[in-house]
Amino acid sequence: MKVLERRKDYICVEIYRTLFSIYGKVKCPLFYRTPFQLLISVILSAQCTDERVNKTVSGLFAKYPDSMALSEADVNEIEKIIKPIGLYKIKAKNIINAAKKLNEEFGGEIPETIEKLTELPGVGRKTANVIISHLFDGYGFAVDTHVNRVLNRIGIVNTHNPYKIEMLIMKLMSHESLGNFSLLLIMHGRNTCLARTPKCPDCAINNLCRKRL
Predict the structure, then answer these.
(1) What is the band of 139 on the pLDDT scale with cuts at 50, 70, 90?
(2) Do 145 and 152 form a contact (C-beta atoms < 8 A)?
(3) What's the burial of 112, exposed, middle or buried (CB within 10 Å: 0-12/13-18/19+)?
(4) Of 100, 144, 199, 202, which is the active-site residue?
(5) Residues 6+ apart with CB under 8 A from 122
(6) In Å, what is the CA distance from 190 to each residue of 32, 146, 150, 207?
(7) Which residue segments constitute the domains of the chain, with CATH numbers given?
(8) What does the CA dihedral 182, 186, 188, 190 come to, rounded to 10 degrees?
(9) Is 144 considered catalytic here?
């Protein structure tokens, strides 16, 4: 039976179960000790590896551990600290302005909704979904390049629009599993369903994949 003839909700559940048996409950790969630090780490992770971000933020958080300290930081000093992660000029401005907005409009607390989170500089839906799923046990489904690629290859979605993918998966999956489902797909995309040379013979879910059927 071809994948397109099968119920997509069933396929998603089977993918989740299979990948969960391999990776389990996936922890956030970014370093942080407080909700504010997670926010900053996720903003800085755009177009950068988690490993590089983690190496960089250890020095950043040592000097600027909270929103008050970062909001008063000199942008040139922040640029020097985060330069290794790329796009550092834009990101330096964003994290300082995000810290200021948190203090001025949210009392230094991280907003608990996607709508409010995306009001912060440097925060798009993907970043907001990561925050929601990790900090508030919310129903966040973050769509990065790995999630996008894996779901399109399998045949669950036929679009590369992150918002449309997010909305569809939220209809297909139980809300409590959304955050970990995103992380499981990321792990699978990094380790098996590679962009250029996917390891199809070694794939634990190739029986569910349109590419293989």
Answers:
(1) confident
(2) no
(3) middle
(4) 144
(5) 43, 46, 90, 91, 94, 95, 97, 98
(6) 22, 7, 10, 19
(7) 3-27+140-208 (1.10.1670.10), 35-135 (1.10.340.30)
(8) 180
(9) yes
- Evaluate if pTM is beyond 0.70: yes
How distant is the alpha carbon of residue 107 from its chain centre?
Answer: 25
Render 43-76 in DSSP notation, one character per residue: HHTTTS-HHHHHHHHHHHHHH--SHHHHHTS-HH
Specify the amino acid at residue 55: K
Degrees, nearest 5: CA angle 95-99-101: 115
Q: State how far the Cα of 53 lies from the Cα of 95, in Å rounded to an integer.
A: 14
Known active-site residue 164: no
177-203: per-residue pLDDT in tens?
999 999 999 999 999 999 999 999 999
Within 10 A of 82 (CB to CB), how many other CB atoms are there? 23
Helix H or strand E segment including 150: helix 145-154
Catalytic residue among 126, 137, 171, 211: 126
Phi, psi torsion values for 162, nearest 5 degrees: -55, -40
